[in-house]
């Protein structure tokens, strides 16, 4: 765990990675606790509508039963094991069982349609998929073995240690969301969990305080749910809440927090905006972390007032996660910034030659960080293209500010070039979100014969709200640069979103390009 320090500088100076030659995430997340403190609560299971506390000893036995089922289906070291499950003890046990065997787990999302499942199952070559009855039905079109809880042997595997693995041995294959192209499989080693821990602890103001209980509405099929919450919580011995809802709502969040005694939450930005739009107040929280999109000053101010905490924004991606973060107990956040480098990571802004720059450039992470992928699965060309002279390229553009804060400008392909100005959509989105009538917004560049591109905003209004286009344009003009206001605004009922809750700007850009017209 991070040693609490009096300053950010001291925190970084005192930090050192601990990556032993013998490292297996099954031991980190389950076996070690089951051996030393089996009655300790691992998961607070709310999936049935009432609370059931699952101990590490119980989780261990469940994972051993899954392991027996996998062995019976011929799973060996290096085989891929799909996990098509929502939040719940079986989801955790399936990953743990695969890692204990030296297999590679492949998280899969229940909302995937047939083509999305087919691409991931086909590319990974999954030998077995651990799922439930619903997932079994989804998998009928595919030629893969299925293991449900009903299929598990009554008896666990005979007691034995996890197979010998080290930090660089493959453990989990997580597919990107595919917002900028075909989803690629980021292959991670057993060091990936250790790599996440300092950022998770930092984003929750030193997670691991007495009484801490961790929850996220993000599905455990995504790196944000699996490695920002579930597995770090288990590794640190902090109870993790499992809860399911067909759709996130403020009432659901309030119920989970109260019933599960939650004190620490990772809320994706979309969830925070829904809470704000509903004027929700949540009590009893010690920390709230968020990541995926910059929140802006208005959202941070709302968090202090409505949630009673400073929302700590963190930054990362499937290929290398939890690399930068805020930490309200150490320093004030900078609105629009991604935070500062997490101890053990070097996050920088580099130019086309791979050199540090104080101008706008590519946000990058120094190669060698513990949460960095081993490679893109069976894709050496894409792996090579991801790096530039010792730096992993995130695909985001930013500016390095004083104190090591990284200001987010936008995705490399999202930056708008208008009349010679380079305009980041995030700042405009943040500004529009401060308008009391706006629920959510996506900003893109629309082709324009005079300016090259113009700024176009797609806005979803709050229920029973109306606002003229000119009022929103003036709202931005009065708060940002005069050249960056949206020259066109369209009002939609909903924005295209990824399954992880991010606006799909690619879809909005295609829509804008197809609209034509003059500005």
UniProtKB/TrEMBL annotation:
<feature type="domain" description="AMP-binding enzyme C-terminal">
    <location>
        <begin position="427"/>
        <end position="502"/>
    </location>
</feature>
<dbReference type="InterPro" id="IPR025110">
    <property type="entry name" value="AMP-bd_C"/>
</dbReference>
<dbReference type="Pfam" id="PF13193">
    <property type="entry name" value="AMP-binding_C"/>
</dbReference>
<keyword id="KW-0067">ATP-binding</keyword>
<protein>
    <submittedName>
        <fullName>AMP-binding protein</fullName>
    </submittedName>
</protein>
<dbReference type="Pfam" id="PF00501">
    <property type="entry name" value="AMP-binding"/>
</dbReference>
<feature type="domain" description="AMP-dependent synthetase/ligase">
    <location>
        <begin position="33"/>
        <end position="377"/>
    </location>
</feature>
<dbReference type="InterPro" id="IPR020845">
    <property type="entry name" value="AMP-binding_CS"/>
</dbReference>
<dbReference type="InterPro" id="IPR000873">
    <property type="entry name" value="AMP-dep_synth/lig_dom"/>
</dbReference>
<dbReference type="InterPro" id="IPR045851">
    <property type="entry name" value="AMP-bd_C_sf"/>
</dbReference>
<dbReference type="InterPro" id="IPR051087">
    <property type="entry name" value="Mitochondrial_ACSM"/>
</dbReference>
<keyword id="KW-0547">Nucleotide-binding</keyword>
<comment type="similarity">
    <text>Belongs to the ATP-dependent AMP-binding enzyme family.</text>
</comment>
<keyword id="KW-0436">Ligase</keyword>
<dbReference type="InterPro" id="IPR042099">
    <property type="entry name" value="ANL_N_sf"/>
</dbReference>
